[in-house]
Design goal:
By secondary structure, the protein is an all-alpha fold. 72% of the residues lie in helices and 0% in strands. It has 21 helices and no strands. It has helices at 6-14, 18-21, 38-50, 56-64, 68-82, 86-93, 96-106, 109-120, 128-137, 140-154, 158-165, 168-178, 190-203, 212-221, 224-238, 242-249, 252-281, 287-298, 302-313, 317-324, 327-337. The chain is elongated and about 70 Å long. It starts with 5 loop residues before the first helix and ends with a helix.
């Protein structure tokens, strides 16, 4: 992201915020199947699971080539037909990373987000990076869906539990995001963006010490198009990018969260391309992150993530996955990735 030229920044800011406005299926690789037949899919899944040895190919084809709503119809019909739960059968019949990706593909997106957040807050210590990734990149609707799934499973609200896990300015910012109340208007008031840019400059670069609450209020509440304009205005006011200023003025988890928000505002696909690159390029593959990102973005903006990956890292995501992960797990991820460009 830091390598973006200012002209590119400007063109990004002027583009439509695809991931925040695109309907599921528009920019994703996982799309609704045109001649969808729920009965045929249930029969094929039963045969694949109940036969001698699991037919992985069938599981991959069905779960990577149906929309989320189609998969929920399949799950419902599967339960009515077999008196068993599809997700449980997948767990019983597959193992390891392949099991994790299939189970995630079969669940509704809000349930996945909720499960990932529950896991991040489990045990000693919290995995803040997962909380940041999910809460900084989801729309209000997605946050409402994950909150409903969270409350159903834990019998507590997400905000109640977050209050016991995170504190200080970082906690305040996460709680604001978890409310799912970001302004979603698409109109941009250029004058207000200038006011906000100046307020951020006065609260950070211009001041001895930093007024974190001003950064939190603006970055966690304003609409995405408004924030894009504010980021452009900020460069005019301070001569620096907002990301650079945050990195200079803040530290720890608050810095990481606000940088995540800025990256998602500028380009959610580029943000996730970077996540995928790190999960594939480190010492050993980070399959947990790889699975989470591929599944959560498959139906939303995987086409754009692929394009950003190629632009930023000069290689194809499909090829990287192919050389990094193998077996049925690798086959499944390649199907979610789609083409080889």
């Amino acid at each position: 992201m830091e390598g973006l030229l200012w002209e590119e920044l400007q063109s990004v800011a002027n583009a439509a915020p695809a991931s925040f406005t695109a309907a599921p299926g528009e920019r994703g690789t996982i799309k609704a199947q045109a001649n969808f037949n729920v009965g045929e899919d249930v029969a094929a899944l039963r045969k694949a699971i109940e036969g001698i040895g699991t037919t992985e190919k069938t599981l991959i084809e069905i779960l990577t080539q149906r929309s989320s709503s189609q998969k929920q119809a399949i799950s419902k019909a599967y339960q009515e037909t077999t008196k068993r739960i599809l997700v449980n059968d997948l767990k019983g019949d597959t193992r390891g990373n392949f099991e994790n990706v299939l189970v995630a593909l079969a669940r509704p997106p809000g349930v996945n987000d909720s499960k990932w957040i529950i896991k991040a807050m489990k045990g000693a210590g919290t995995d803040e990076s997962i909380l940041m990734e999910i809460l900084s990149s989801r729309t209000n609707k997605q946050i409402k869906e994950l909150s409903a799934a969270y409350a159903e499973e834990t019998k507590k609200t997400l905000t109640q539990n977050l209050k016991t896990e995170v504190s200080g300015h970082f906690g305040k910012a996460l709680l604001l995001l978890a409310e799912g109340a970001r302004d979603e208007s698409t109109n941009v008031n250029a004058d207000q963006a200038k006011v906000d840019a100046k307020a951020l400059y006065q609260a950070g670069e211009k001041k001895l010490g930093t007024d974190e609450s001003k950064f939190i209020e603006i970055l966690c509440k304003r609409s995405i198009p408004h924030l894009r304009q504010t980021i452009l205005e900020y460069k005019n006011v301070s001569g620096k990018t907002l990301q650079k200023s945050i990195e200079k003025e803040m530290s720890g988890n608050l810095e990481k969260l606000l940088v995540d928000i800025v990256k998602c505002v500028m380009s959610t696909p580029a943000y996730f391309a970077e996540k995928l690159y790190k999960s594939l390029k480190g010492a050993g593959t980070d399959e947990t992150t790889l699975t989470r990102v591929m599944v959560s973005r498959g139906e939303i903006d995987m086409l754009d993530i692929r394009a950003e990956y190629k632009k930023l890292y000069k290689c194809s995501l499909h090829k990287e996955i192919n050389s990094d992960v193998s077996g049925s797990y690798g086959d499944c991820l390649k199907m979610i990735c789609g083409g080889e460009d």
